[in-house]
Amino acid sequence: MAKKTSKKPKGLSIARNAMKFACSWKKGESYSDKQQFSYLVNRAGKSDKWSSAANIAKGTTSRSVSLSASNYYPYKGKPKITEFKFRVRGISKKEKWSDWVSQVFKIEAPAKPSLSVSASETNYNQCTFTWSVDTSNGHKPFADVEFQTKLVTGYDYGGDKGWSADTGGASGSKTYTETASTIASGSHTRWFRVRARGAGGASEWCYASRVYSAPNAATNVKGEVTNQAGGMQVKVTWSQTNNSSYPVNSTTAEYAIKVPGENLTYNGNADGVIGTMAGAGRAASSFIGQGLEKDECLFVRVSSTHLYQTTYSGWVLVRAGSLIDPEITDVKTDDTTHRATITANNKSEVPGAFLVVQYRTGSDPGKAATVGIIPAGQTQVSVQCPDWSDEDSFEFGVYACVGSFESTTRADGVDSYTVTARMKSDAPVWQGGQVPHAPENVKVNPTSISGTVKVVWDWTWREAQSTVLSWADHEDAWESTSEPETYTISNTHAGEWNVSGLETGKRWYFRVRLAKGYGENLVYGAWSKVAMIDLSSAPSIPTLMLSKSIIPSDGSITCFWSYVSGDGTGQAYAEVCEAKITGDGVRYDKIIGRTETSQHLTLSAKNLGWASGEMHYLCVRVVSASGRVSDEWSDPVPITIAEELAAVIDETNLVEQEITVDDNTRTVMSLAAMPLTVHVTGAGIGGTTILVIERAEDYHMDRPDESDFNGFEGETILFHSQTGEDMITVNKEDLIGILDDGASYRLIATVQDSLGQSAEARLDFEVHWSHQAVMPEGHAEVKDMVSYITPIAPEGYQDGDTCDIYRLSADQPELIVSGGSFGTTYVDPYPAIGEFGGHRIVYRTKDGDYITKDNEIAWLDLTAEDGDSINLIYSLIDFDGEQIEFRYDVTHSNTWEKDFKETRYLGGSVTGDWNKAVGRTASLKGSTVTIQDQDTMRKFRRLAAYPGICHLRTVDGSSFKCDIQVSEDRRYDSNTIRAEYSLSVTRVDPEELDGLTLSEWLSEEDT
Fold first, then answer.
1. Which of 658, 704, 942, 1002 has the most CB atoms at less than 10 Å from its CB?
2. Contact assessment for residue 749 and residue 689, using Cβ atoms and an 8 Å cutoff
3. SS percent in the chain: helix, strand, coil, step 5
4. What pLDDT is attached to residue 207?
5. What is the pTM of this model?
């Protein structure tokens, strides 16, 4: 007797809850009527026995074996698989068996996932970890990924303790948003690790992390400057600490050219960047295409960035420019005492700048003595000079300086000063002579143009050749570092000029002075007295709005109002008062609240002494930053003080139950059976009671049709509304969602009264059905390409329990019987063809549960091993009570179309809008011989004209309802007359379930 030659298994396919091995072999040459097939599964640490030998037909060369994935790792307490074996043998006509021939399929742990982390572009506290697993290797079956995470202080994740764990699919992502207060200081790291698990074991862990920390600030910042044509070459160096807990992604050297603050410091924004380096950097150089203007200094600093957090070193002074030259306005001398009084203006805006007074004679103009100091903020000093009796001429000069000085008194009684300058004006300004008088009768008048005024004055100095107008929004601008605006009129005419561009809503102050000469020889007169004009106006009457119209006696109300400026200024403050409404109108009573620039204010009923049953009226008025008050109070708005409404869930049929999982016991409120009864008080007789059930936690379980259905936190399961406080009874048919065994839910009761108040009460509970599903039993039989399925009630069946039947095929399981009865035979008119065919019987309790007390899924798959199989080499088309066998030269192709809309953004990112519906089209091409297939050709003609839904079963294992469009081509030649058909198939959703009871099937057959 010839022996079989076994081939290796074709591969392993993983369904939602099953592992399928496709086994094939080459049969012996002289078998009689049968072969035998058996298999074994070797588990880690244990060798299993061969399964009982199954008798199969002598011509069979392939076999499919399906294992329940829930019986193996990673399910808790289940073993790992190391290999799958099968063997076959045949019997000869002399009834003698051949030797067994076997093959092995090795099973290994899944591939190690790939893992990446990305930070949110909009939320600094958020990051997303994304993983994917290569599941293409059949020897490495994949079940799920286990991922774990924890937030640690610093960087080291510290071993295997403290991780929180969850599971997911072959590809996915998890986003974590950290609490801002938690990561506000120091360094924190979000660690994430993931590994792939399957029946063969688990892969190695793959780690990724996201560090939340502000980087260490740069230190030891230094700068070097070299003048070049058109600007400066600046080099910056620094020190930077960079480690795992405080990483640095990039470092930027910045510069600012500014008028310095006190002690030549700066604390503001940067003007530009010298250079940006990845990581800690530590040196940068760049050309700055500008020089230092008068009063300006060059500062540099270094910013260190990690993701979205940046720290800064302090600004460091690199180079100081020249101070603005001062101006001598008056020199008065005494020839007897040789003392002089010098009056000068320090024009520099650098804080702390003082004026240095120098004296020189005509006989030795190259030698100047420092004889006095005009401190910062002062304009005059009296100095003692050497005897100038023998001098033909002498003069005084001043220059501005920031630094320090020391004074000594010489033998001749003249004070001499030693100045140490950190920043100074370029050279002394030498000046002497008589100062002209100030102009008189200065006035400022409004014009018809907003922000424009007319300044008028008298020309009190006939030799004057120009006028300087000066203005500011504060009266002491001419004696402060906040320099006023100026404008010079270079031609003499009548004393008047328009000044435009003034900001409204302010008081403006003006001064005028006259001048003679040009350029460096310009001599200024004294400033006039100050003249003022007010450009402010009152804001509009505000409109008051309240956050609520009703509050309890211990509640609070927030007032909101609009602010519209009359002169462009902002709100300085607002006041809320309580109004009294009488027959004579509105009387504005005491002010009960005040706020500044904000346009809202919260008031407490308790603090104001408001009691239940009262009604109060509130008004608001606003005051602008220019000091103007709105013309009137706002219209009064009422607020009612009412008894606080309370919602109470005072009665349910939920019971306390102890739940133990992994040696952890907790007590929960449990729903054991439907209906659920709930009594809510608070609405009274005429109020409204609303009861909502929603999921309290995310929930996932396998569904019989292998759809990816998940229950998500916040999902609405029930919405019920009624008037009054009657007991609420919730039946299964009232639900709009699913109450899953072991899942967490919450009752949310909301009551509303006639005043519009509402209150809410919540109660969390879990579902733990007292009666749970059991594993169903049943058998199937195939006759005339139709399956007869009989579910059998197992031990533990109770009245009201039902079963569902799903058709198994190469596609997703399809429901054909819903709410069926055990013991009744059901008919599937269109069972699938081939090894993927079969049926799934699902046990459902009267409450809709299909989970057993052992947390197993209560369904049974009937496959070829149970006789539920059709083996054909051709496709079948059912329509209008007829059937076509599509046999010759058949070409079959499938196309699935997902409803997906792609949106591309600049930068390359892609997002999608999904509709979970998936369309399917197919095409079949085949031939018929016109001489011998006349009946088939007539059926094709009838199919072409048939306007209804058809059913298609293909040899690749699909079975589905569809629309079929028929095209026919005829071929005529010397040997054959052929008709070729092309079918365009579009899958459609069934109008009703396919399954029938046996009696219904027989009744249809008779008709």
1. 704
2. yes
3. 5, 55, 45
4. 95
5. 0.44
